Automatic annotation (TrEMBL):
<dbReference type="InterPro" id="IPR002125">
    <property type="entry name" value="CMP_dCMP_dom"/>
</dbReference>
<dbReference type="InterPro" id="IPR016193">
    <property type="entry name" value="Cytidine_deaminase-like"/>
</dbReference>
<keyword id="KW-0378">Hydrolase</keyword>
<dbReference type="GO" id="GO:0005737">
    <property type="term" value="C:cytoplasm"/>
</dbReference>
<dbReference type="GO" id="GO:0004132">
    <property type="term" value="F:dCMP deaminase activity"/>
</dbReference>
<feature type="domain" description="CMP/dCMP-type deaminase">
    <location>
        <begin position="1"/>
        <end position="127"/>
    </location>
</feature>
<keyword id="KW-0479">Metal-binding</keyword>
<dbReference type="Pfam" id="PF00383">
    <property type="entry name" value="dCMP_cyt_deam_1"/>
</dbReference>
<dbReference type="InterPro" id="IPR035105">
    <property type="entry name" value="Deoxycytidylate_deaminase_dom"/>
</dbReference>
<dbReference type="GO" id="GO:0008270">
    <property type="term" value="F:zinc ion binding"/>
</dbReference>
<keyword id="KW-0862">Zinc</keyword>
<dbReference type="InterPro" id="IPR016192">
    <property type="entry name" value="APOBEC/CMP_deaminase_Zn-bd"/>
</dbReference>
<comment type="similarity">
    <text>Belongs to the cytidine and deoxycytidylate deaminase family.</text>
</comment>
<dbReference type="InterPro" id="IPR015517">
    <property type="entry name" value="dCMP_deaminase-rel"/>
</dbReference>
<protein>
    <submittedName>
        <fullName>dCMP deaminase family protein</fullName>
    </submittedName>
</protein>
Amino acid sequence: MNLATDLAQRSHCVKAQVGAVLAKDTRIISIGYNGPPAGTHNCDEEWPETGCPRDARGSCSLALHAEENAILYAVKNGAKLEGATMYTTLSPCLPCARLIFSAGITQVYYRKSYAEYKGLPSDEGVDFLNHFGVKAQKFDDADVPLKLPL
């Protein structure tokens, strides 16, 4: 989760910075953060005051979500996602949840709630994943054992 948090800082989004990490068999297999497709533009440079244009639901109309970027990068590089775990700084929206499920990812840990961020009544993406057998839960730093240097 620390890596996902660090990746989020690479985002050029002026509204929200989100990072995602895909891991499998104790290895990182892909990373991603939210932003427009590579080679297009950077929102903080082109629209520094307002961010990129919004769609009808108030979301970025030009950006890929961190989860999408992590999945696309993995696929582009031939990584097998079946059985992978995703760590993301914001719980997946419903469209990302459908991609996560379809990719065969079996666990998702998130730091903050997308529903709370967007003012929605529930985390539809988390509900979808849990309903269809993907374990999606809020990450609790207290559950991580502290590793002390030798």
